[in-house]
Amino acid sequence: MLAFLMWPIDGIAGMEMEAPHSEHEPAHSHTVVQGQWEGSPEGIAYSEFNHAFTGLGVILVGLSELQPAMGWHVLVWVRWFLPISLVASGVFVLIWSDHEAWPIGSWTLAETLSGKDPEMLQHKVFGILALGVGLVEWCLRAEKIHHFIWRALLPGFALVGGFMLFMHMHGPHPAGHQIQIHHNVMGTLALAGGVAWFAGEWLSQSQTSISAFSRPKSVLKIIWAFFVIMIGVQLVLYSET
User: Fold this and answer.
1) In the predicted model, is pLDDT for residue 201 greater than 50?
2) How far is CA 173 from each of CA 12, 55, 70, 76, 176, rounded to the nearest angstrom?
């Protein structure tokens, strides 16, 4: 879910007010034009703040996953970082994902959800997904549910989001190449972390003696948590200048 959440956050400055390209200006130009939000000083500041804010939440998620992976019997309350961070991030995305979207912008709820701007609609859908996964993680930690499917939601969405980050593109932006590098790094970390989590689960479900695989399983879960933390650090350090 982390990269799945990062993808809409990464486009959180998203409603670019782009002026048409002149006949002498190539469509792929990264020149900022008057009236364009993407790449403007205000748009950059808005985007960088949202990345950093989300990064702090992702770091908390990673710490929440690291505690059981390390077998720590102290700081048990840390396990609640994950659902709280996801729920808070979901609310944040639903409200502030696009500066022209409902409820903070000039677009109505119907316009926001109409699909007239697909990226805007995706942001709201992903905000709902973050809320949903956060509530599932809350129930898992409260031991209300136990099935593997529920536990696999978070790393499963990390895999999906990791692939999406490689395809997610901003509009014309003076730092477009730098932003794409951020995408690629976070996508790689999300994919590697998701694979590590599922590999650890596969080892734990293996027919072979659990004792023979307990250490590799723990190492893989630590790798998963470490990559989640690294994604959060990447978001905190994100820059468009």
Assistant:
1) yes
2) 14, 22, 42, 44, 5
